[in-house]
TrEMBL record, chains A, B:
Residues reported in the UniProt entry to bind substrate: 63, 274, 316
GO molecular function, one term: thiamine-phosphate kinase activity
Record-linked CDD domains: ThiL
Positions bound to ATP: 132-133, 158, 223
Protein name per UniProt: Thiamine-monophosphate kinase
Amino acid sequence: MEHTWRCAITVADLGEFGIIARIVGRLPQSPTVLLGPGDDAAVLAAPGGRVVVTTDLLLEGRHFRRDWSSAYDIGRKAAAQNLADIAAMGASPTALFVGLGLPGDLPVEWLDGLTDGFRDECAPVGASVAGGDISRSEQVVLGVTALGTLDDRPPVTRAGARPGDVVALTGRVGHAAAGLALLQAGLPEAFPELSGAHRRPMPPYARGPEAAALGATAMADVSDGLVQDVGHIASSSGVLVEMDADAFPVPASLAAAGERLGEDPLEWMLTGGDDHALVAAFPSTAVLPSEWLIVGRVVEGEGVQVRGHAGAQGGWDHFR
Amino acid sequence: MEHTWRCAITVADLGEFGIIARIVGRLPQSPTVLLGPGDDAAVLAAPGGRVVVTTDLLLEGRHFRRDWSSAYDIGRKAAAQNLADIAAMGASPTALFVGLGLPGDLPVEWLDGLTDGFRDECAPVGASVAGGDISRSEQVVLGVTALGTLDDRPPVTRAGARPGDVVALTGRVGHAAAGLALLQAGLPEAFPELSGAHRRPMPPYARGPEAAALGATAMADVSDGLVQDVGHIASSSGVLVEMDADAFPVPASLAAAGERLGEDPLEWMLTGGDDHALVAAFPSTAVLPSEWLIVGRVVEGEGVQVRGHAGAQGGWDHFR
């Protein structure tokens, strides 16, 4: 006679509708959600008669690792990278929709952590997870869609930068890249602030609508690397962006991690993605709050130049 | 000296930004799309100040097979199942967002077919693919989000059916299930209409807003199986739905395929998903166009009963 010992309840034990009930039970809904989870589709308020939408696909092993990040941090990060795209339009996030692919043997506790991570990244910005979909999958798959509202503002695209504008940055750059390098080197505990930055970005959400109000002519979130994302602004706007390596003060933690790993911390700052900073062009007359660091200027021409730094031509391409 | 022969251009040859450019170049945008692909997020018009949203995750091997369906049909089906969820709220679809996970060795022609399938399923309903995301993946992964507009109508949820209402169906049921059974039996050519129904559903999109205008009290799309989806209406509304097996005329193709495979065609019609018919409750006074087939009635109680049929308690659970 064989005894089966179960150490943890799995998502397969719950079944599809049990999983949905469990997730929905942990998710408060924001006032924007007129009809939440449980029907064929959700209904959201769209003030001003427009809605901002972005989507990302996150795959286990490629975008996150369960042995490197907790379920809670994976949820926060998946939410953050989509909410940051909304902020980068000058908009305020309102809701997330999450398609979940889950292995049957996934412990329910892991699913709870993921759900709570989504919930807690959404709550401070006034958003909530308003719907989703569940499938069985070999590995964890997250299809995340974020919606947001511009109220009555025009969107800030990548295409409006003009010669004479200044280029300014808000939020961290290089931290997540350094954290990833430390995790890859097996040294996550050496600089917990940096490995933590890889696991859970802290996008400056409120700075997006602030930039719009300050008259930003173009904006992007830094997800592929600063030089590459500024390059998107440059190509969309038909301009050249000149940045100065001297404009970037290297934080002590990045300098120390760079020394430990034999890497150039400025390279992390200029080419590392995943911190989800915001970079924007402003008229030179704009008076920017201290959270915005001026790192360059817009001139006639095309592309991006970084003076005083030999590298920094790279960035992230998912297929290279 | 080694020679490498390449028979087809792959998505890895194009790279991430080449893939995006190729996809976007094949996608016309509908007037609802105020800002389309190419920025951090898209901006859509949301007439009436509300937006309807649904999302699905589709995984190769679980939701589709590349050896059973063409890329074009996979694109159409992935679009259709999301657009049908919008119609089931009484809304009109406006846009799709597609997160794509693609193997590096995928031929570009396959990607083109997929893109064209999405495009062609969207165009007749006035929607377009307004944004997306690309990642490398071991197998094809599709994270699809659909948006729609109610204009000034209230949404038709699953929760409003009342005793005395009639229950009516529009669109095909059982065809996709029969087609899947034929594919699994290695007989796709025996009934091409049915294997075709599995590959490409034909949801009756326009019937969704029509049902809302006719005063539908509750509605759902049939994706898990008619009995199960009517069960969602019953439980959300707190009522019992009685259906009659006699109400369902069995099409000749289903009868013939059932005989060939030794299956009960009525079982396919009552429990098979993936045709994306619409089922709705209406006041008994509603005058329904001939496309709506009355299949049951709403009474006090709970659950679903099918008179004259012994089976039909099943349906689809992604984790069973």
